[in-house]
């Protein structure tokens, strides 16, 4: 197990390093001079040269990368060109919006996916299976931003159950903040639930056909008992893998959803930084998002190794 974790940890570090290099290089080849963008097109050449030195843009690209990644590792992400404050100060309050939104969306998607997937598998070929999987197919096809607009029209403007935009904050209590995140989380999590539900159905159906399920039934275990005690736990292995793979799409979806609902999270900050050509902030935020996805996949690998001990014993 130790060698399994060690191998996955080395893979985590190497993948994050490669991702940081790719993001850094992509930011360097984008058109536009950050100093000119900050000072304006009519800025004096001496002022631009001085700002180049201040930002380190006059140094070789490999030195700039080492300086940036060294600061990144210790939490010094540099200064935002737009806001003229440390990027770390911009991240603090926004993480308190994006992280709960992502966790709530994932919790909704997993809960809904297991419920509909197991129900469809238990009623394979029946009307309930057809209806549930038909709805799931529609959910896969619906873009999350369009679903978000529908939710705003129905639940915010017509029924007035939830706010249409903005974030109330956590100062007034947990429910005060969660109330602002429920609609965005549903819009973000339900399309993912449709995908996971179909995977869950297939995995449960495949598991129900295994010999150990027939043995359990032959020993007198009820159909529902065999389903929940044996089939569902064993079917969760491929589902956990898909959850890790889909997490990157969930994080990308926060950029769109946070802008639709005007939430002051990291996704909205990424959008604003791109619009304002704040390349230093974009570079840092994209690398942080990539590192988050890589870390989640690392954790999924550990869970996968726990659910299937053959992997951890084999070390691969």
Would you mind describing this structure in some detail?
This protein is mainly α. It has 2 domains: 2-73, no CATH class; 92-275, Orthogonal Bundle (MetI-like fold). Helix content is 79%, strand content 0%. It is built from 13 helices and no strands. The protein has helices at residues 2-29, 34-39, 45-55, 61-73, 87-122, 127-141, 144-158, 174-208, 211-218, 223-260, 266-275, 279-307, 309-314. The N and C termini lie close together (10 Å).
Write the layout of secondary structure elements.
Layout: H1 2-29, H2 34-39, H3 45-55, H4 61-73, H5 87-122, H6 127-141, H7 144-158, H8 174-208, H9 211-218, H10 223-260, H11 266-275, H12 279-307, H13 309-314
Helix pairs in contact: 1-12, 5-6, 5-8, 5-10, 6-8, 7-8, 7-10, 8-10, 9-10, 10-11, 10-12, 11-12
């Amino acid at each position: 197990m130790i060698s399994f974790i060690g191998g996955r940890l080395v893979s985590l570090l190497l993948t994050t390093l490669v991702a940081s290099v790719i993001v850094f290089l992509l930011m360097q080849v984008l058109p536009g001079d950050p100093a000119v963008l900050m000072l304006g097109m009519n800025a004096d050449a001496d002022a631009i040269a001085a700002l180049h030195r201040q930002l380190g843009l006059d140094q070789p690209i490999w030195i700039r990368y080492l300086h940036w990644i060294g600061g990144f590792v210790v939490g010094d992400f540099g200064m935002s060109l737009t806001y003229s404050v440390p990027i770390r100060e911009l991240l603090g309050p926004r993480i308190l919006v994006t992280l709960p939104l992502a966790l709530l969306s994932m919790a909704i998607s997993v809960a809904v996916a297991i419920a509909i997937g197991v129900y469809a598998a238990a009623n394979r070929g029946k009307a309930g299976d057809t209806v549930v999987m038909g709805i799931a197919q529609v959910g896969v096809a619906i873009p999350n931003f369009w679903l978000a607009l529908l939710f705003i029209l129905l639940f915010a403007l017509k029924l007035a159950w939830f706010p249409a935009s903005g974030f109330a904050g956590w100062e007034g209590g947990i429910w005060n903040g969660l109330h602002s995140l429920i609609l965005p989380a549903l819009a973000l999590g339900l399309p993912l639930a449709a995908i996971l539900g179909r995977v869950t159905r297939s995995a449960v159906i495949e598991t129900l056909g295994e010999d150990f399920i027939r043995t359990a039934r032959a020993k007198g275990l009820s159909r529902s008992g065999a389903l929940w005690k044996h089939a569902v736990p064993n079917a969760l292995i491929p589902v956990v893998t898909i959850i890790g793979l889909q997490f990157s799409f969930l994080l990308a979806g926060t950029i769109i959803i946070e802008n639709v609902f005007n939430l002051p999270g990291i996704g909205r900050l990424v959008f604003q930084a791109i619009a304002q050509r704040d390349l230093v902030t974009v570079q840092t935020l994209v690398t942080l998002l990539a590192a988050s996805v890589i870390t989640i996949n690392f954790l999924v690998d550990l869970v996968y190794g726990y659910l299937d001990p053959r992997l951890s014993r084999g070390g691969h």
